[in-house]
Specification:
- With 77 residues, the protein is mainly alpha-helical.
- Helix content is 53%, strand content 10%.
- The chain contains three helices and two strands.
- Strands 1-2 form a two-stranded antiparallel ribbon.
- The protein starts with a helix and ends with a strand.
Length: 77
């Protein structure tokens, strides 16, 4: 596992933990990350109908981004 992936997993675990002393199982961290990715994509799709392009593009991330109102891209593959 790369140092960057290790850092990301540690940070994700901290976000998911219910307290500073909590150490959630990796399956819980992974489930939360997957749920967040799916919900984010749905939120961007829904927002396309309500907000202007410039506003929506402010929410682009390294994983999801809206391009020209025509498609939502994933940068992970």
């Amino acid at each position: 596992m790369t140092d960057e992936r290790e850092r990301q997993l540690k940070r994700a675990s901290e976000i998911v933990a219910s307290s500073p002393d909590d150490d959630p199982p990796m399956s819980v961290v992974t489930d939360a990350a997957l749920a967040h990715l799916i919900q984010s994509e749905e939120n961007i799709r829904n927002a396309r109908q309500e907000l202007d392009l410039g506003t929506i593009q402010r929410f682009n991330t390294g994983v999801l981004r809206l391009r020209y109102r025509t498609q939502i891209d994933s940068n992970r593959r």
